[in-house]
Design a protein that fits this description.
Layout: H1 3-19, H2 21-57, E1 61-65, H3 71-82, E2 87-93, H4 95-106, E3 125-130, H5 136-143, E4 149-153, H6 158-198, H7 200-208, H8 213-253, H9 264-295
Antiparallel strand pairs: 1-3, 1-4, 2-3
């Protein structure tokens, strides 16, 4: 396509936007409303996914070593655990460290346990993490059968429910986002279709004077793209502003917690680019479907 033709199509698409003021406003409004919903829900789902991932990464298996096991037997147990294909890391925590952690976690109530510093009744522990958090249960059950593994803890019962909730929430989130996107496409497609219907006579005249199908289509494709891009401006501003204040409010409250939300930057830039691309693609898609299925050009 020649540069002169591209300029002509671009100029005509802008003229059409201005000439059909109310229809342009209706189309942009449709894009804006749907992208605000998609943007807000996407931000929520991405942060829930971040929280879920953080929780999964903190799931670990604590293997209590038999008190009667000597160093050689302990090392043999460690080697067997490390040889399990699903295991990512194995960290040794001596019983002295376990006692100190217990005392620290209990605060003032932990002072009573300082009496056991001379005669520590706790076990040495291997802290095991899996490559995939969902393999935790399988690996824990396998380790239970190893020699000198006195007790294996991984939050049995709670971990299963946690993984189930995370899986369901992720699946529901994906379905809702896809549903919102298709709803956005349907609404925008219908709005653009009405715009094209109102200009049917103009398109028929262009065909009568010999304009090719692609010569007619290109300005409409560009018009759909501009509608999508213009419609994404308000959602980008709204979602960025909402997330900025939410981030400023929640970040200090979560500072002492292992649960964290996504940092404002670069996440807000990623969401902005995504909304801009979604607006443009949905606008073009709406134009394509309207022209191809309705006008049969």
């Amino acid at each position: 396509m020649k540069v002169r033709t591209v300029r002509r199509h671009t100029r005509e698409s802008f003229k059409s936007l201005l000439r059909n003021g109310w229809m342009t406003f209706a189309s942009i409004s449709s894009v804006t409303i749907t992208l605000i919903l998609v943007g807000v829900f996407f931000v929520i789902m991405m942060n829930l996914n971040k929280v879920a991932t953080t929780i999964e990464e903190n799931v670990e298996i604590r293997v209590h070593i038999d008190i009667a096991a000597n160093k050689k037997e302990r090392n043999a147990l460690q080697d067997k655990i490390q040889n399990v294909s699903e295991v990512k890391s194995v960290k040794f925590s001596p019983k002295e460290e376990e006692l100190n952690n217990l005392i620290s976690s209990l605060g003032d109530d932990g002072n009573a346990f300082k009496l056991f510093e001379q005669d520590n009744p706790l076990n040495d522990v291997f802290i095991v993490k899996t490559k995939n958090p969902t393999d935790t249960i399988k690996v824990a059950n396998e380790i239970k059968g190893f020699d000198h593994a006195a007790k294996v803890k991984y939050g049995q019962g709670s971990v299963e429910r946690l993984f189930k909730v995370i899986k369901v929430s992720r699946n529901v989130g994906i379905v809702l986002i896809v549903g919102l996107l298709f709803t956005a496409m349907f609404l925008i497609s219908n709005t653009i279709k009405i715009t094209i219907v109102a200009r049917r006579r103009e398109i028929e005249i262009m065909r009568l004077v010999g304009a090719t199908n692609w010569f007619i289509r290109w300005p409409l494709f560009l018009e759909g793209m501009w509608l999508g891009i213009l419609g994404s401006i308000v959602p980008i501003a709204a979602v960025s502003t909402i997330y900025y204040y939410s981030y400023q409010y929640l970040k200090p409250k979560l500072a002492s917690n292992f649960i964290q939300i996504l940092d404002f930057t670069p996440f807000v830039y990623q969401v902005s680019v995504l909304l801009l691309l979604m607006g443009a693609i949905i606008g073009i898609w709406g134009s394509v479907m309207s022209i191809r299925k309705f006008l049969k050009i």
